[in-house]
Design brief:
Length: about 160
């Protein structure tokens, strides 16, 4: 029968105009909150947005320099931590990768559908996190970030199987 997992392309990376627009919106939001979108933060977010899929930190470090020079790892990790705290990026722990947030909302629970076959990842709305929020509130707990990761097979891999 062979391996039914094929690497197929989903939507592909966004256009340069889409990336530029998302960067400007993120910059405006962060500035409006009284913080700075430093050059490093903008560059890491640009790399995540341009990829259109989850990216491992070491790939961000390697691609960081416009001139092909890698970044110092702490520069990228600090930028990722900031972007994650601001809800502009999410860390998907099960695949050790980062992805630009597709919703643009600062306070929201992120839920990801991850195909174990081709690696496609999609951010979806997480209504089940609302139940988690109310359970946490009853316990006197304040949730700062929620990321839900669901593994399975995307439609294309299900058809291929």
């Amino acid at each position: 029968m062979g391996d039914a997992c094929h690497h197929h392309h989903h939507d592909g990376p966004p256009s340069a105009a889409t990336v530029a627009s998302a960067l400007a919106a993120a910059d405006a939001r962060v500035t409006g909150e009284g913080e700075r979108m430093t050059a490093a933060r903008l560059r890491v977010l640009e790399l995540l947005l341009s990829a259109g899929e989850p990216v491992k930190a070491y790939d961000l470090i390697a691609r960081f320099g416009e001139d092909g020079q890698p970044a110092k790892p702490p520069t990228v990790y600090r930028a990722l931590e900031f972007l994650e705290r601001k809800g502009l990026a999410h860390r998907i722990a099960s695949i050790s990768a980062y992805v630009a947030c597709s919703s643009g909302k600062a306070d929201h629970a992120a839920a990801f559908l991850i195909c174990d076959c081709c690696g496609a990842t999609e951010e979806v709305s997480a209504s089940l996190a609302e139940g988690l929020d109310s359970a946490a509130a009853k316990a006197g707990y304040a949730i700062e970030r929620t990321t839900i990761e669901a593994h399975g097979r995307c439609p294309a891999c299900r058809v291929a199987a």
